[in-house]
Amino acid sequence: MAESAAAAAVDLGHALDFEGPPVYYNKADYIQTASGNKVSRQSILCGSQNISLAGKSIVKPGVVLRGDLQLLRIGKFVIIGEGSVLRPSYKKYKGNFSFFPMTVGDHVTIGARSIISAAQIGSCVSIGEDCVISKRCMVKENSVVLPGTVLPPDTVVPPLTVFGGHPGQYLGDLPESTAALQKQQAASIYRRFQADPTARKAPAAAAAKPPAARPAPAAEGAAA
């Protein structure tokens, strides 16, 4: 009886830990940093000296990080979907644009083609595909922004809430377990994102080539 109970416990543990199959990428298409970040060579890092990635994050192809405007701090286990843009927010004063640093917490997932101009994204936040998070928004920890949501400027998304719609509005509350689930999801996505062992290695010269880092005028960021 004891052995069968132990076997059942092991089987249950495997079921709970199931993450699905790996998602393979071509190692030649990504740069992996010492801290475990996986950054696509097809991403654009503007002002890379002002961009901080804490570690174990994924930056997909087509992502634009606008560090040329202000500091951009990104936490651990942050997944940034293809074609998304992270651009520090600004405020216009006497005809001049003043940009503010942007902070993204740990265990955050950002869907493809989303445009983020928030002042702050808290930890354990899920932002769906095709979202627009307008300037100076604050998305607090353990919250969810549904796909296709447009948050107007200065919107505050409280902790443990769901926002959605166009314009985005409060749709309901989330359980206390949201933080644990989001941590598990973000970490699972990172673990499953693995280099394809069958892909051919890139030539040494190509492997050394960093992601595109292009300067961009502030006026473009303000108008976009």
Which descriptors would you attach to this protein?
224 residues; alpha/beta; disordered N terminus; disordered C terminus
Low-pLDDT regions: 1-16, 204-208, 216-224
Q: What assembly state would you assign to the polypeptide chains in this entry?
A: single chain
Strands, total number: 25
Radius of gyration: 19 Å
Helix content: 10-25%
Write the layout of secondary structure elements.
Blueprint: H1 2-17, E1 23-25, E2 30-32, E3 38-40, E4 44-46, E5 51-55, E6 58-59, E7 64-66, E8 72-76, E9 79-80, E10 85-86, E11 90-93, E12 96-99, E13 102-104, E14 109-110, E15 115-116, E16 120-121, E17 126-127, E18 132-133, E19 138-139, E20 144-145, E21 150-151, E22 156-157, E23 161-164, E24 169-173, H2 178-192, E25 193-195, H3 204-207, H4 218-223
Parallel strand pairs: 1-25, 3-6, 4-7, 5-8, 6-9, 7-10, 8-13, 9-14, 10-15, 13-16, 14-17, 15-18, 16-19, 17-20, 18-21, 19-22, 20-23
Antiparallel strand pairs: 2-3, 11-12, 23-24
Keywords: Cytoplasm, Cytoskeleton
Region (Disordered): 200-224
Pfam family, one: DCTN5
Can you give a write-up of this model?
It is found in: Cytoplasm, Cytoskeleton. This is Dynactin subunit 5. Belongs to the dynactin subunits 5/6 family. Dynactin subunit 5 subfamily. There is one protein chain. The strands form five sheets. This protein has a nine-stranded mixed beta sheet with strand order 2-3-6-9-14-17-20-23-24. Strands 4-7-10-15-18-21 form a six-stranded parallel beta sheet, with no helix packed on it. It has a six-stranded parallel beta sheet with strand order 5-8-13-16-19-22, with no helix packed on it. The chain starts with a helix and ends with a helix. The protein is 18% helix and 32% strand. The protein contains four helices and 25 strands. The chain is globular. The protein has 224 residues and is of the alpha/beta class. The model is unreliable at 1-16, 204-208 and 216-224 (pLDDT under 50). The chain has helices spanning 2-17, 178-192, 204-207, 218-223, and strands at 23-25, 30-32, 38-40, 44-46, 51-55, 58-59, 64-66, 72-76, 79-80, 85-86, 90-93, 96-99, 102-104, 109-110, 115-116, 120-121, 126-127, 132-133, 138-139, 144-145, 150-151, 156-157, 161-164, 169-173, 193-195.
